[in-house]
From TrEMBL:
InterPro entries: IolE/MocC (IPR030823), IolE/XylAMocC-like (IPR050312), Xyl_isomerase-like_sf (IPR036237), Xyl_isomerase-like_TIM-brl (IPR013022). Residues 37-296 form the Xylose isomerase-like TIM barrel domain. It comes from the Bacteria. The keyword RNA-binding does not apply. It comes from Dyadobacter helix. Its EC number is 4.2.1.44. This is Inosose dehydratase. Keywords: Lyase. The keyword Iron-sulfur does not apply. It holds the Pfam family AP_endonuc_2.
C-alpha cells in the first residue's frame, strides 16, 4: 500500500480553540477554511465557528474543495443517562451524515478534567473505578456504535488526556470490552505520547481497529513542565505542549508511524490536529509546515 486510500485533513482547532474560545477568537470561519485549502488539505473536522446550516456549510466548503471528515462528540456516559447521550449522538449523526462524513469521533467528557483550567491533568484525570463502571461505559458505547453502524458510519472513540481512557492499558480495556464492529479508535499519537506511552507501539497495536487518525507532535520541554508544575491540560495547550508534525521542536517518530500505516490496510483520513495558541503559532504557517512534511513521507 502506498497511501492511495489515505486522505489528508486538518482540524479547525488549530485556528480557533473549542475549549478556550479566546484562543483564535479573532479568526473567522471563512479565514479558517480558506487557509485549510491554501495549505493543501482536502478535508476538515468541524469547529465552533462553522455554520450549522448544512446548505451554507456545503457551499462554503465546496468553493474551497473541502469536505467534512469527522466531528468531536462529547460522550457523557459517566454522568448522564444513555438516553440523554443517544439524543445528542443522533443529532450529530444527522448533521455528519448530511455532510457526507463516515466517522463520528469524540471522547468521554463526563468525568474528565480536560476542560478544567485549574485541575492538574495527571492528578485529576477521569476514572472508571469498578468493573460495573466499565461495564456500563462499554455497553453504552456499544449501543451508540451500533446506531452509527446501522447508518453506515463508524464511532471512532478518542483516547484523550484527562479522561478515563488515556493510557494504553485503558485503551486495551475499552477495545476488549466493546464490539469491534461497533466501536473503533480515533488514534492520536500526541495524546499517547503525552500519557507516557509509545505512540508507534500503540499504532501497531490498534491500527486494525482504527477508523480515524489524528497526528500532532509534542514539545518535550513543555511536557516536562506539565509534570513539574502540575499543570492542567488547558494550561499545557496554552503553553505550547503540542505542535505540528514537521516542527523541529517536536519529538515523535513520524517516519515510523507512517511506515505502520503504509504496511496496514488503513483506509481513511489522517488529520492534522495540533492545537496551539494562534497568536504564538500562525495557523496557516504551521499547517503548511505539516502539509509539506506529510508529502515528504507519503508522496501525497
Amino acid at each position: 500500500m502506498n497511501f492511495e486510500n489515505i486522505k489528508l485533513g486538518v482540524a479547525p482547532i488549530n485556528w480557533t480553540n473549542d475549549d478556550m474560545p479566546e484562543l483564535g477568537g479573532e479568526n473567522t470561519f471563512e479565514q479558517c477554511v480558506s487557509e485549510m485549502a491554501l495549505a493543501g488539505f482536502t478535508g476538515c473536522e468541524v469547529g465552533n465557528k462553522f455554520p450549522r446550516d448544512t446548505g451554507i456549510l456545503k457551499k462554503a466548503l465546496g468553493l474551497r474543495g473541502l469536505q467534512i471528515c469527522n466531528q468531536w462528540n462529547s460522550y457523557e456516559l459517566t454522568t448522564k443517562s444513555l438516553d440523554e447521550n443517544k439524543k445528542n449522538f443522533i443529532q450529530l449523526l444527522d448533521f455528519l451524515e448530511t455532510m457526507g462524513a463516515k466517522v463520528i469521533g469524540g471522547g468521554e467528557t463526563g468525568n474528565s478534567c480536560q476542560g478544567q483550567m485549574n485541575v492538574p491533568v495527571f492528578e485529576g484525570k477521569g476514572m472508571l473505578h469498578t468493573n460495573e463502571d466499565w461495564k456500563n461505559f462499554s455497553q453504552g458505547l456499544n449501543e451508540l456504535g451500533k446506531i452509527a453502524r446501522d447508518r453506515g458510519m463508524k464511532l471512532a472513540f478518542h483516547h484523550h488526556m484527562g479522561t478515563c481512557v488515556q493510557t494504553i492499558a485503558e485503551t486495551d480495556r475499552l477495545m476488549n470490552e466493546t464490539d469491534p464492529e461497533n466501536v473503533y479508535l480515533n488514534y492520536d499519537c500526541g495524546h499517547f505520547f503525552f500519557a507516557g506511552e509509545d505512540p508507534v507501539a500503540a499504532l501497531k497495536k490498534y491500527i486494525g481497529r482504527t477508523a480515524h487518525i489524528h497526528l500532532k507532535d509534542v514539545r518535550p520541554n513543555v511536557l516536562q513542565r506539565v509534570h513539574d508544575e502540575k499543570l492542567s491540560f488547558l494550561t499545557a495547550v496554552k503553553q505550547g505542549v503540542f505542535t505540528v508534525p514537521g516542527d523541529s521542536e517536536g519529538c515523535i517518530d513520524f517516519p515510523s508511524l507512517f511506515e505502520v500505516i503504509r504496511s496496514s490496510d488503513y483506509n481513511g483520513w489522517i488529520v492534522l490536529e495540533a492545537e496551539q495558541d494562534p497568536a504564538k503559532a500562525n495557523p496557516l504557517e504551521y499547517a503548511i509546515i505539516a502539509r509539506k512534511f506529510f508529502r515528504s513521507l507519503t508522496g501525497i
